[in-house]
Sequence to fold (230 residues):
Amino acid sequence: MDRESEGMITEALRRIRPDAIVVGEEATHADPSLAAVLSTPQPAWLLDPLDGTANFVEGSEDFAVMVAFVEGGHTTHAWIWRPIASESWTAALGEGAYRNGERVTVATSPRSHLRGAVLTRFLEPEHRAHIDAHVHELGEVLPGLKCAGVEYPDIITASQDFAMFKRTLPWDHAPGAFILREAGGVARRWDGTDYEPTIEGVGLLATATNATWDNVAVILLTNRSAGLHP
Fold:
C-alpha cells in the first residue's frame, strides 16, 4: 500500500515541478543516498505516502498523507491530508497555516496543566527513566498516536500542548513542523535550534508557544543535549 501510494503521488509531483527530486519514504528506504539531495540547492519534494501505517491497518482514522517542498535548504510549502477525517492542512512560507481553507493559529493562553505526547520508543533507557520520574510535573503525558500527521495539527487545535520525538526522519516531520510554525507554534531540536529537515540533529520538541517549549524542555530534556539546560 505505501509503495503503491508513493508511486502514484511521485508521478503527480514530478508533473508539477519536473526539476525537483522526490524524496519519498519508500524510495529512500530502497536507496538511502537519495536523502543527500536535501543538503544541496536542488529543490525537492519530501513525501510520506502513508504516515501512521499501523493505524491504517488497524482501521483507525489516525493516518495521513504528507508532502513538503524544500528549496534552498528550507521548507517553503507543506500539505497534510487526512482522508477519513476529510481534513486538509496547508501552509506556505510567510502566508500562515490553513485547515480546510480557513486560516488557523495556535492558542497562546497560558495553561498550568499541560497535555502532550512523548514518543519514547527510540529513547535510551536512562532518558525514558528520567521522563517517567518527572512527567508528573507537566500534567497529562500521552504515549502518542503513531502519526506525526495528527500530532502536529493536534497542537494547533489545542488538543494537546506539545509533542516530543527522538527520531526525526524528514518526511515524518518537515510537513507538520512547518505548518505548526506558520500557525505561530514552535518546532525546535532538543538543543533549542529551529528544526530544518535539511540539517541533521537530535530529537524534536514541538509546542504551541515558546513558554511551553521552555517549560517542557526544562523538565524532560535537562542535560539531554550539550548546552541545553545544564
About this structure: The two ends are 45 Å apart (CA to CA). Residues 114-220 form a domain with the D-Maltodextrin-Binding Protein; domain 2 fold (CATH 3.40.190.80). The longest helix spans residues 2-16.
